[in-house]
Amino acid sequence: MGKLKVVVDRVLCEGIGPCAEETKYIELDRRHKAVILEPGKDKEKLFEEVAEKRKQEVILDLTIDEEDEIFRAAEACPIKAIFIYDPETGEQLYP
Prior knowledge:
Layout: E1 2-9, H1 18-22, E2 26-28, E3 34-36, H2 43-50, E4 55-62, H3 64-76, E5 82-85, E6 92-94
Antiparallel strand pairs: 1-4, 1-5, 2-3, 5-6
């Protein structure tokens, strides 16, 4: 298991949606903006929490396969609105 900091720029996000097809950790809300689903949090409450935010940042503890999913999701975004960082060093891993 590894940790990744995943950031969605909700201003850049155009709600096209291929990111949500790649991982269980991203869904589009009612405004068609990407939301990072946080384990243990109610999805509808999370949608409300991030509705007016410009960015959503979440540190996820992931298996190797889930890490691959997150990178595929970020790569699938045609406008590069998903950023991935190493939470310990702050190094940007994608894009």
